[in-house]
Automatic annotation (TrEMBL):
Main location: cytoplasm
Cofactor: a divalent metal cation
GO MF entry, a single one: metal ion binding
Keyword tags: Cytoplasm, Exonuclease, Hydrolase, Metal-binding, Nuclease, Nucleus, RNA-binding, Transcription, Transcription regulation
Protein name in UniProt: poly(A)-specific ribonuclease
Source taxonomy: Eukaryota, Viridiplantae, Streptophyta, Embryophyta, Tracheophyta
Oligomeric and partner information: Component of the CCR4-NOT complex, at least composed of CRR4 and CAF1 proteins.
């Protein structure tokens, strides 16, 4: 049985299409809905991959291609389905953006052709779509207000990448995978990827399947048009709950993983925090040793003028070194606080 409690208005009673003319009203409705349904399932549509990543590529190379693709292209649709901890669906909002122009913006022609064949109207997007910047202001405020911290995706690396850019968290994805993981863990929250989760479920082909195939295997009805962010987001939310019901395992072991990447995001942040903490302690020990040397020089009884001049120079060097170490310690404390800080403080 589908656990859909309520649905927004529109031609499809389960999915609300959001355009520039109804953005404010629908953000308000989403705001109210989040009081009871704080879990977000996300899906995006984008202009395809310009760089293709070969199968089996190491994390760093995969991230480099992913970063290039996301930074060079513009998101077309971003959709969220909100649900509660029991899997009840509160609603689905499909945000349609006007920033992408297939005539001038970077894209994969095959992907654009595919989206058109599946009913995406680029003319309407250009005419009635939302400016990403305007969306970011409205949506980010709502996220922070409700402290949204749990996101459900399917093969969600690109979804999370476009989410970060759409919200203006960064102007472009950072150069390293480590920095990206840091941003996701601290600014987005906990991510659970169904494609990764399927690897632990018997009969789900080890996760080597698409969303449509997963729906067929779990006998889940689709609402709306496939390959539209709204329908895919709702499908993701429904499949997540169905997987939790059918498979007896602790799904939290999948939290923090995005399919295709081997490292758990929270572990990276934890390692970073520990590394910075160790650096702080080392700097503090250095400072203590330098202070002892300075005190020893200060209280030393020296009669010879040459020796006194020599010790004075040594004292000044130690003093300069101490300032440097203290600065190193302060910087470390700043980044340790940043690493340990919870989202949206």
């Amino acid at each position: 049985m589908d656990r859909i409690v309520q649905g927004p208005r529109g031609d499809n009673p389960l999915i609300t299409e959001v355009w520039a003319y109804n953005l404010d009203d629908e953000i308000l409705r989403l705001d109210h809905c989040l009081l009871l349904y704080p879990v977000m399932s996300i899906d995006t549509e984008f202009p395809g991959c310009i760089k293709r990543t070969p199968w089996g590529t190491i994390d760093e190379e995969l991230y480099a291609d992913f970063r290039f693709n996301v930074n060079q292209t513009k998101v077309i649709q971003l959709c969220v389905t909100v649900s509660d901890e029991s899997g009840n669906i509160g609603g689905t909002w499909e945000f349609n953006f006007s920033d992408f122009d297939p005539e001038i913006d970077a894209h994969n022609p095959a992907s654009i052709c595919f989206l058109k064949q599946n009913g995406l109207d680029f003319g309407k997007l250009k005419k009635d779509g939302i400016k990403v910047r305007k969306f970011a202001i409205r949506f980010l405020y709502t996220m922070r207000k409700h402290a949204i911290h749990q996101w459900i995706t399917f093969h969600g690396l690109y979804d999370i990448g476009y989410l970060i850019l759409a919200l203006g968290v960064v102007k472009s994805l950072p150069e390293t995978l480590g920095e990206f993981e840091w941003i996701v863990a601290r600014r987005v929250g906990t991510v659970r990827d169904l494609k990764h989760m399927a690897r632990f479920c018997e009969g789900l082909e080890g996760g080597n399947l698409g969303l449509e195939k997963l729906g067929q295997l779990l006998d889940q009805k689709r609402f709306g048009l496939k390959h539209h962010a709204g329908s895919d987001s709702l499908m993701t939310a429904l499949l997540h709950e169905k997987m939790l019901q059918l498979y007896d395992f602790n799904a939290e072991i999948c939290d923090g993983f995005l399919y295709g990447l081997s490292k758990k995001f929270e572990e990276f942040v934890g390692m970073q925090s520990h590394r910075i903490y160790v650096q702080i302690k080392c700097a503090e020990v250095k400072a203590m040793v330098i202070r002892k040397k300075m005190l020893k020089l200060f209280y030393a009884k020296i009669c010879d003028e040459y020796e006194l001049s020599k010790k004075f120079k040594e004292f000044k060097v130690l003093q300069s070194h101490l300032r440097f170490v203290q600065q190193e310690c302060e910087i470390g404390q700043f980044y340790y606080y940043k690493a340990s800080n919870i989202m949206y403080q």
